[in-house]
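Progress note, sequence design subtask.
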C-alpha cells in the first residue's frame, strides 16, 4: 500500500498508516473476535481487507463490530476478569487511532508512568520501586476497583479532545467506547462506562485518563511524593505512616471526583521492614507487577549477609507457572526428541527467566528444578535401559555437560533433585 491520500475523503488518513497498523496487529498475534476471522484468514485477502478499513475510516463510515467478551480467572480465586477481544479488522482500525493519538500525548506523560509506553517496561517500574523502597520507609499499595469497567466515557473524550485536532480520532474513540460486548451466551451488553481490556486503543486511553486523574494531580498536590504507575497498578512512597494515610485519603477523594474508587481492602499502607527498619506493623509486604516486595536475605559486595527489602516472583505468579508446567505433561511425550521438547518449552521458560528472574532469581529455582524432574521422568519413560535411577542420573549428567544450553534454564539450574 502506498501513502496516497484521497482529496474526496473528509478525513485524511494515509494508507501507509493502515498498513503499519496491520503489521503491528499481525506481530502481536491474538485470537479472532466475534466474526471468527483469524489472522491467517485476514492475511489471505489482506489487500482488500485493509483497503476497506482505510476507505471506511477516511469517509467516516467505519462502525466497530461488537467486542467479544472473554472471561479469565483472577489470581487467588477472586472471580473472573472480562477481556474484550475485537475482530482482527477492528484491531487494525484501533491501532491506526492509537498510533496517531500516542504521537500527541506521549510527550506529556509523567516520567513515572510505565505501562505500554515506548522505551519503558514493567521491569523498569519494579526496579525503580525497589530503589525507592530502600530510601522511603512506607509504601501505599494502590488498587483501583474495577478501573477498566468504571472509567467514565465523558472524561476520556474530554482528555482526547484536548490533545488532538483530528475529528476522526475523537469520532472513532467515541464509537469504540460505546461498542457493545457480546457475551459467551450470544447476548449483547451495552456499555456507558469503561474501556475493554484487550483492545488496541485501550492502553493509550487509560494512560491519558490516569495522567490527569492521578499523575498530574500527584505532581501538583504531592510534588515530593514519588510513585510508579503501570496503567491502573500504582505504588506511592512516603516518609512516614502519617503521610501515607494522608495520601490514601486524598487519592480516594480524587478518584471519587473522576468516577473511580479505591478498593477498600486491597489498598494498603505497607511498612518496608528490613534489617535496619525493625518496627512492628501489620503489613510489611506488597505485590507489584508479579513481584512480592518483602524482607529478604541479601549479600553485600563484600560478602556480608544482611536483610534488605527486595522484590521476588510472587506466589501467585509461581502458582500460575506451575499449573502451566503441569499442563505440559512432559514425562508422557515420549514421541518427541529432547530437541523437540527444547524447541517447544524454551521460548516460554526463557520468557519467565527474563522477567521473573530479573530480581532475586533464586526464588525461581524450585520451579526450574520441577521442569528438570519432569524431563528426567521423560528420559526414564522413553529409554527403558535408563529406568534405574543411577543410569538415568549418569545419562542426565552427560546430556547437561555436553549440551549445557539445550534447555533454556540449564545455565542456572541443571540438576533435578
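Output:
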Amino acid at each position: 500500500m502506498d501513502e496516497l491520500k484521497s482529496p474526496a475523503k473528509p478525513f485524511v488518513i494515509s494508507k501507509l498508516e493502515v498498513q503499519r497498523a496491520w503489521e503491528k496487529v499481525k506481530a502481536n498475534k491474538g485470537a479472532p473476535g466475534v466474526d471468527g476471522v483469524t489472522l491467517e484468514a485476514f492475511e489471505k485477502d489482506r489487500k482488500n481487507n485493509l483497503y476497506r478499513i482505510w476507505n471506511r475510516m477516511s469517509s467516516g463510515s467505519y462502525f466497530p463490530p461488537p467486542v467479544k467478551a472473554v472471561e479469565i480467572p483472577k489470581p487467588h480465586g477472586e472471580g473472573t476478569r472480562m477481556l474484550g477481544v475485537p475482530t482482527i479488522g477492528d484491531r487494525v482500525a484501533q491501532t491506526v487511532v492509537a498510533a496517531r493519538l500516542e504521537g500527541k500525548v506521549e510527550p506529556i506523560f509523567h516520567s513515572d508512568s510505565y505501562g505500554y509506553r515506548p522505551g519503558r517496561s514493567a521491569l523498569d517500574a519494579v526496579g525503580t520501586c525497589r530503589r525507592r523502597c530502600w530510601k522511603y520507609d512506607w509504601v501505599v499499595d494502590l488498587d483501583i476497583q474495577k478501573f477498566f469497567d468504571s472509567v467514565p466515557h465523558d472524561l476520556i473524550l474530554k482528555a482526547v479532545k484536548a490533545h488532538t485536532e483530528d475529528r476522526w480520532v475523537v469520532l472513532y474513540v467515541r464509537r469504540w467506547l460505546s461498542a457493545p460486548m457480546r457475551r459467551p451466551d450470544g447476548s449483547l451488553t451495552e456499555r456507558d462506562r469503561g474501556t475493554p481490556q484487550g483492545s488496541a486503543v485501550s492502553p493509550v486511553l487509560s494512560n491519558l485518563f490516569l495522567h490527569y486523574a492521578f499523575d498530574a494531580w500527584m505532581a501538583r498536590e504531592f510534588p515530593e511524593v514519588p510513585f510508579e504507575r503501570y496503567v491502573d497498578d500504582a505504588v506511592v512512597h512516603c516518609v512516614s505512616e502519617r503521610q501515607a494515610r494522608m495520601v490514601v485519603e486524598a487519592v480516594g477523594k480524587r478518584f471519587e471526583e473522576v468516577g473511580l474508587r479505591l478498593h477498600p481492602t486491597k489498598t494498603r499502607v505497607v511498612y518496608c521492614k528490613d534489617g535496619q527498619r525493625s518496627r512492628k506493623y501489620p503489613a510489611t509486604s506488597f505485590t507489584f507487577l508479579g513481584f512480592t516486595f518483602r524482607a529478604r536475605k541479601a549479600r553485600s559486595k563484600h560478602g556480608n549477609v544482611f536483610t534488605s527489602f527486595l522484590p521476588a516472583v510472587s506466589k501467585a505468579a509461581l502458582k500460575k507457572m506451575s499449573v502451566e508446567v503441569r499442563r505440559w505433561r512432559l514425562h508422557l511425550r515420549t514421541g518427541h526428541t529432547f530437541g523437540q521438547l527444547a524447541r517447544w518449552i524454551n521460548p516460554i521458560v526463557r520468557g519467565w527467566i527474563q522477567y521473573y528472574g530479573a530480581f532475586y532469581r533464586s526464588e525461581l529455582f524450585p520451579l526450574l528444578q520441577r521442569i528438570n524432574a519432569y524431563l528426567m521422568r521423560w528420559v526414564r519413560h522413553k529409554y527403558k535401559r535408563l529406568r534405574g535411577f543411577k543410569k538415568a542420573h549418569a545419562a542426565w549428567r552427560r546430556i547437561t555437560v555436553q549440551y549445557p544450553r539445550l534447555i533454556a534454564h540449564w545455565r542456572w539450574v541443571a540438576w533435578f533433585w
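The first strand starts at residue 67 and ends at 73. Work on this subtask will continue into the next period as scheduled.
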